[in-house]
Input
Amino acid sequence: MSEIHSPFLSACRREATDVTPVWLMRQAGRYQASYRAIRAKYSMLELCQTPEAVVEVTLLPVHQFGVDAAILFSDITIPFLGMEVDFDIAPGVGPVIEQPLKNAEDVAGLREYVAGERLPFIAESVQLLKKELNVPLIGFAGAPFTLAAYLIEGKPSKDFKKVRQFMFTQPAAWNSLMEFLTKVTVDYLALQVQAGADVVQLFDSWIGALHPNFYRQYMLPHMSLLFSEVKKLGVPSVHFGTGTASLLSVMKEAGGDVIGVDWRTPLGESWKGLRYECGIQGNLDPAVLFASRDMIQSEIDRILDEAAGRSGHIFNLGHGVLPGTPEENVKFVVDYVHERSSR
Ligand code: CP3
Output
């Protein structure tokens, strides 16, 4: 794979490309009729554990839209299966945990495991995909804070009160939980890379709940260790979060060849703040995909103008494609980014 010409891989290494690479977080999902047809046959968790179906779904957006990278179809909660945490992914809601973690004892009860033994369908899916793909494959994992947010809150949350309370009132248990999740996550990413993933992305979707001082105190040591281990895997990494305007520099300090930004901060300003020492990915507002072609076009123009042709820009949304997004607008985004950036 690394032998073939890929603007996405080049941009991850901050090398010049003849076109701005584009892929979209959650590029395979319910907004696609083809996805809904496959999904009708499986629950979300069954789908994630069926390699042939994972391959089919992962390839959908690659074939339909011509994106420059594929992302393994899975979910950040899949490592919970190995830990023997009881949970489900409720349609329209998200992950729901049967018995949320409350204390050190609950943390100690999480099962340590080897991803290759407990989650063999992951390696199998990646290996099958590598035979089919002519673009790079992104492997991914949820970052420890975001995983802990589900394990402690028990369901999707808006304010993450319980996580922050846990962190502040039970710091020793919090550190044990972070050590455990860091270890499991490194092993899980290693499995994907050994099976053939070309790049890995860490989704720290809910990290924006923290003040930078608390990130520094409670997360940075763990995230630095995580990224130093990921570096040893020998593939580029993308470090993504939302609500991170005040966290970008400390996130970069933790690690990642590319920093992913959401839609709330101007991409140009964010990149400048990071002194152009990493690549940047983002930041089209996913809701703009519901708007007129003129609006979509002018937002893409703005983002490309802010990136100003610098090496290391990967076009993406600021978060995942929303259910209900018109499929033809996704195609329009990919085509327009390619056309406008190769002029
Ligand atoms: O990007 C991709 O195309 C790969 C697929 C992917 C999914 N989940 C598929 C999915 C990825 C990268 C994820 C990661 C994920 N899962 C994150 C991090 C990214 C982000 O969006 O912040 C988070 C927070 C989750 C947890 C989760 N899983 C949520 C919030 C939901 C949505 C609930 C809903 O029904 O709207 C899920 C389920 C999920 N994961 C779906 C998909 C396509 C919907 C499943 C369905 O019902 O078909």
